[in-house]
Amino acid sequence: MDAAQLLLGALLFLLPAALLLHLLRGRGKPRLPPGPPSLPFLGSVVWLTNKPSEIEPLLRRLFARHGPVVALRTGARLSVFVADRRLAHTALVERGAVLADRPALPSVRLLGESDNTITRASYGPVWRLLRRNLVAETLHPSRVRLFAPARAWVRRVLVEKLGEPGPDAPAPPRVVETFQYAMFCLLVLMCFGERLDEPAVRDIAAAQRESLIYLSRNMPVFALLPAVTKHVFRARLDKARALRRRIRELFLPLINARREYKKRGGEPKSKGETTTFEHSYVDTLLEIKLHEDGDRPLTDDEIILLCSEFLNAGTDTTSTGLQWIMAELVKNPAIQEKLYREIKAATDDDKEEVSEEDIHKMPYLKAVVLEGLRKHPPAHFVLPHTAAEDMEVGGYLIPKDTTVNFMVAEMGRDEQEWKNPMEFSPERFLPGGDGEGVDVTGTKEIRMMPFGVGRRICAGLGIAMLHLEYFVANMVREFEWKEVPGHEVDFAEKNEFTVVMKKPLRPRLVPRRIQMSDSAE
């Protein structure tokens, strides 16, 4: 036997042993999360038969097949989705720094926009500066109290608009449109420090909403081969730029007016002027210096993006939440009556409104709002996170730069954690209920996460809860909300920027205060 034959024999003997050793070594290592097969350039083959806008039912099928952690690919990008609350707590709270970053959006680069916003910025000094400014200078309780007169004004606007249609109207109104308008009235005032007239507010609301919905529906395509799709879908980019220009045209004069206001030392432009507010979010943005960029101030375009972000965060989610909660109260008149009795007991009859001090004395009101957010979170996903390094979730490897998202609605409706989860039962948040003492910040554990959790938790959690409680209480005090034959409440969902009612709520509103005055006579 020559040397070549001896070498070949040795190799034939050693190769199986080496392969077995490799398999044994790899057995203990985490593997990528399961998911459908992928094709080069396209990503997961499910995109051949499923639209990105229909991802939620697709994910439910994948969770049922593979378990609470699944992976999808869009082009070369790997995205992981987590449906288990305990795994979410481990990832977002216990190891929060690893998932505190955001994925880069190709559409943002193609539009030439800055990443210097609170939702987009990388986890670092610019993000900390922008978030700290928002929390300390606009959303801090001392600042929130300054806007109490603005909330009272918007409450009057809301009640007036809701009470406009008479009993002879051909059909009850779609109340969500009134909710959206009222929330824009409030957030525009908080943002720009100016109480604008109705046409101006509606112009801003229309521009913001059109841009928001168009971008959310039409920009995800650029995640797939942006070098190619930017040419194939050039018309989409042109439309998006036109929508952004419209927002700039509306916002820039308001920002410049605020600059002038500050130069005047906070004095009104004319004597007796009552539409200008003493504080605004824009005021704080005009003071910011980006230390990481030579202490430069924010550009006009950066301020416009931050204002747009502020309005989106405070209007669409709140108006969506209000519609879902009021729909449940229409469908459950006994719950509405119980809430009304609590409101009546805590508020003097001769007071014009349920005050912000009053609502702190209403545990059932808070339970109604929490139950609405649990069953109908306005967003069914958190904003996506990016892994800053390789990490493990549920025994699976999450490689660095992977996009990771969490199933908000699935956690809040998990039948293993909640009794009869699709039943609207505010009592679950009262003593003895399965949601007693729930912490929506998710610090100790996650039972529900309508505002996200961890380091990128929604900065506006506190003011969102205040607005929901304040406006729900006042709407129930002013009107009895009744279901209308032919316009029954339908809880089917529809994806826009938030998850809204597919069939908008159309109730009959019976004024309660008139009934009270009539009975007194």
Report on this model:
Pfam families: p450 (PF00067). This protein has 521 residues and is an alpha+beta fold. The protein has a single domain (76-520), classed as Cytochrome p450 (Orthogonal Bundle), CATH 1.10.630. It is 51% helix and 9% strand. Strands 3-4-10-7 form a four-stranded mixed beta sheet. Strands 1-2 form a two-stranded antiparallel sheet.
Topology:
Elements: H1 3-27, E1 38-39, E2 43-44, H2 55-66, E3 69-74, E4 77-82, H3 85-94, H4 106-111, H5 125-137, H6 141-146, H7 148-162, H8 175-192, H9 198-218, H10 226-232, H11 234-263, H12 281-287, E5 289-290, E6 296-297, H13 300-331, H14 333-346, H15 356-359, H16 363-375, E7 385-386, E8 391-393, E9 396-398, E10 403-406, H17 408-412, H18 461-478, E11 479-482, E12 493-495, E13 499-501, E14 508-511, H19 512-520
Parallel strand pairs: 4-10
Antiparallel strand pairs: 1-2, 3-4, 5-6, 7-10, 8-9, 11-14, 12-13
Helix pairs in contact: 7-8, 7-18, 8-9, 8-13, 9-11, 11-13, 13-16, 13-18
